[in-house]
Specification:
- By secondary structure, the chain is α+β, with helices and mostly antiparallel strands.
- The protein folds into two domains: 3-386, DD-peptidase/beta-lactamase superfamily (Beta-lactamase); 409-501, Lipocalin.
- Helix content is 28%, strand content 23%.
- It contains 13 helices and 21 strands.
- It has helices at residues 3-9, 26-39, 84-97, 119-124, 127-130, 153-160, 177-191, 195-207, 261-272, 285-291, 353-366, 373-397, 441-444, and strands at residues 44-51, 54-62, 78-79, 229-231, 240-242, 258-259, 276-277, 280-281, 302-305, 310-314, 317-326, 329-336, 341-347, 414-418, 422-429, 432-437, 446-452, 455-460, 468-474, 480-486, 498-501.
- The strands form five sheets. Strands 14-15-16-17-18-19-20-21 form an eight-stranded antiparallel β-barrel. Strands 2-1-13-12-11-10-9 form a seven-stranded antiparallel beta sheet, with helices on both faces.
- α6 (153-160) crosses α7 (177-191).
- The longest helix is centred in the last third of the chain and has 25 residues, at 373-397.
């Protein structure tokens, strides 16, 4: 499982055709979803259907924690990951409605320190550009700067500002968490409130989202909380285990919302009603239309990127949707404004059951009700697992046995620096090397064991990621000059890290 697949699967399933079924068989749906939970080996799943301004059906399946008996309910709190991006876009929309900024304002009007590797782009980068994944950076670029680190949002953006573009500004799609972190900084500068404060006071409270939070620390005082579940090192043979919530304050704006099906129903009621709560506008018609319109063409069923949403077509109906994924969670929701309809699916494991649930329900309301997304998705999942198994097998086959490092272990110790990410420190104790990344010591502290030649296997502390491999480089005098990281992850760009040794 990886988070990039969340982006792919959320927009892949076409639904065959032709007419709306007005009275879906919800009992049959219940049976279908219970089976999906079993088929996908999903720890827990919460699902809700919103129609005509009401949560008309909701259900929990499985457990909050596989080690305990407590069941998932519609009131169970889940980490919502990138579902948070729509909250950030809504916050911007509220400020636009107050006349405090405009979507097409340059970002530097509010963040004078905002920079990119291109002077023209820097000066012309707008608030809209922040919110629709057309920055010029590739998907997930810079995410290691916030993942488990102690960097502040300002430090994250400053460090990443020199990373070269790989895409054409405004012409190509590159999913960017960092631009939503920048958007959160805009909200703070304009409103005088932190992103956390703004989302809580201006969105949660007015909509009555009483169990929604933006601080994982608040969960300690709450009950009915779903824990994330992972397989250690992404090993498909390993059992799923619950893990603690990660504190990801540096990524405010991109993720951070914690909520429930019951609360998200109140949120999606507003979107399904074109920005209104009852007869009263929560968002102006103009802001609603700007946020839910495509600002970057994508092609296929996913027609384009809105602001914190994606725009899809389903049986001729416009659907605004967004999925989310973080270690131990995958989530999805979809809104059909013209039908005053929304679907919510929250999962506390790394399976695609949330997409099966969403697509099944959309087919019940927009199609013939005959789609079987579970059957459609299982072969793709099998193919993904086979691909991963082959990659692991190829790595083992390339393992050169009976080799040793070029130098004594003491020659590898020292501080190494990546110009964007920061420092990594290698130490030796009792004849073994250890490595830590200073920005994220708790996640990336771990041992180095010799693999072959001057490559070492890195057994870090992060339960979500596979073990990594560290390969050292040398100068003409065969002195260690640096190292590169080989850690397979479509979500985090370890391959970009280039640690060079400090010289005295």
């Amino acid at each position: 499982m990886n988070l990039r697949h969340v982006l792919l699967f959320s927009g892949l399933l076409g639904l065959p055709s032709a007419y709306a079924q007005n009275s879906p068989d919800l009992q049959a749906l219940d049976t279908y979803l219970a089976n999906a939970v079993q088929q996908f080996d999903q720890p827990g799943l919460a699902v809700g259907i919103v129609q005509n301004g009401q949560l008309i059906w909701s259900k929990g399946y499985g457990k909050l924690d596989l080690d305990k008996a407590d069941p998932v309910t519609p009131n169970s709190v889940f980490y919502c990951a990138s579902l948070s991006k729509a909250f950030t876009s809504c916050a911007i929309g509220l400020l636009v409605d107050e006349g405090k900024l405009n979507f097409e304002d340059p970002v530097r009007k509010y963040l004078p320190e905002f920079n990119t590797p291109d002077a023209y782009v820097t000066e012309h980068f707008t608030v809209t550009d922040l919110l629709c994944h057309r920055s010029g950076w590739i998907t997930f670029d810079g995410d290691l700067l916030w993942y488990g680190t102690n960097y502040t949002p300002k430090e994250i953006l400053a460090r990443h500002s020199g990373e070269p573009f790989s895409l054409e500004f405004r012409d190509e799609f590159g999913y960017s968490n960092l631009m939503f972190i920048a958007a959160a900084q805009v909200i703070e500068r304009v409103s005088g409130m932190t992103w956390d404060q703004f989302i809580t006071t201006r969105i949660f409270k007015p909509l009555g989202m009483d169990r929604s939070r933006v601080e994982t620390a608040d969960l300690a005082a709450m009950t009915d909380v779903a824990l994330p579940h992972v397989r250690k090192g992404q090993d498909p043979a390993a059992p799923q285990k619950s893990m603690p919530y990660q504190a990801l304050a540096g990524a405010d704006g991109a993720c951070g919302v914690l909520s429930t099906v019951t609360d998200l129903a109140k949120w999606d009621v507003m979107w399904a009603n074109e920005g209104k709560v009852g007869d009263k506008a929560f968002l102006s018609k103009g802001s609603f239309n700007t946020i839910t319109s495509s600002h970057l063409a994508m092609g296929g069923r996913r027609e384009g990127a809105g602001l914190g949403w994606f725009i899809e077509s389903n049986n001729g109906e416009k659907v605004i949707t967004h999925s989310g994924g973080m270690p131990g969670f995958i989530l999805n929701h979809a809104v059909v404004p013209d039908k005053d309809l929304a679907v919510i699916a929250l999962g506390n494991g790394e399976s695609y059951s949330v997409f099966a649930a969403t697509n099944k329900i959309l087919d019940l309301y927009l199609g013939e009700g005959k789609a079987d997304p579970v059957a459609t998705m299982l072969p793709r999942i099998k193919a993904n697992k086979e691909e991963d198994a082959k990659r692991v097998a190829d790595r083992k086959a390339a393992h050169a046995l009976k080799t040793k490092p070029s130098l004594p272990l003491s020659n590898y110790i020292g501080t190494y620096t990546d110009k964007i990410y920061g420092d990594a420190v290698i130490t030796e104790k009792d004849g073994a090397l250890s490595l830590r990344f200073d920005p994220a010591p708790e996640l990336f502290m771990g041992t180095l064991s010799h693999w072959h030649y001057d490559t070492f296997q890195w057994q870090h502390a992060d339960p979500f990621l596979e073990p990594g491999y560290i390969t050292f480089s040398f100068d003409a005098d065969h002195k260690v000059t640096g190292f590169k990281v080989d850690l397979h992850s479509p979500d985090f760009h370890f391959y970009k890290l280039d640690f060079q040794r400090e010289t005295k």
